[in-house]
Amino acid sequence: MVKMGFDDRAPDSQQLTSYDEGHLADYLRLLDADADGADWREAAGLIFGIDAATEPARAKTMHDTHLARARWMTEVGYAHLLGCHRPVNR
Question: What is the pTM of this model?
Answer without folding.
Answer: 0.82
